[in-house]
Amino acid sequence: MAKRCSACGKDSPDESNYCNYCSRPLEIDVICTACGAKNPSYGVFCGTCGGDLAKVRRPPEPPPPVVPIPSRLETASTSQAYKMCPRCGSHASIYDFECPNCRSSLTPVDDESLPYGYDGPPDSGSSVPMIAGILTILTGVLAIGQGAFYLLAGSIAATMDVPGGAITCCGMLDILFGLAALFGGYCSIQKSKWIFAIVGAILAMLSFAFLVGFVLGLIAVILVAISKAEFME
Do the domain assignments include residue 105? Predict the structure, then answer.
């Protein structure tokens, strides 16, 4: 025979004094010590003889549930589930090595504090974009030097009453190409904004800086093109 709990309505074994589901005391019969009549557990006086049921021994109340206090190790593990970006203050996961908001680099977390099964940071990729960026920047410097040489030659031609407008225009164009190449090379080294990196390498190639610039720029264009997958954008 089972006892039904009046609190949750579920049955517990007949020998149970407390509900197996909500831990409330079960309504068991209380035997009057005076006449031996059965009374409900919530009764105060016997329904047969009017005797005092308070003297009858009843099951004690269940102790309050114990709420576990998290240990210092658990608190530290919870606090390390996220880390804050030092640049924009955004929250990032412990597995992120760059901020999802501003794309700035994040300090990696020690391997000992990471959950089991972590394999370490992802592969940073090859050095092809960096080599392309160095070649692009070098070609950009040569283009700026060639542009400065053309501007000087145009100024000298003007003092000698020789038409030098075309030379001056070529010099200004070389300087613009060189500045664009410097920016594109920087983007290539940082592996960001692939479109600027490839445009900078193309302009560096088209500057024909002292002829060698065409070869260096062509190599940079090829390297940037084949390493497009390593760029963030």
Answer: yes
Number of domains into which the chain is organized? 3
DSSP for the chain reads -EEE-TTT--EEETT-SB-TTT-PBP---EE-TTT--EE-TT-SB-TTT--BGGGS--PPPPPPPP-PPPPHHHHHHHHTTEEE-TTT--EEETT-SB-TTT--B-PPPPGGGSPTT---SPP---SHHHHHHHHHHHHHHHHHHHHHHHHHHHHHHHHTT---HHHHHHHHHHHHHHHHHHHHHHHHHHT--HHHHHHHHHHHHHTTTTTHHHHHHHHHHHHHHHTGGGS--
Domain that holds residue 92: 80-122
pTM above 0.70, yes or no: no
Residue 72 lies in a domain: no
Same structural domain, 99 and 42:
no
pLDDT category at 134 given cuts 50, 70, 90 is very high
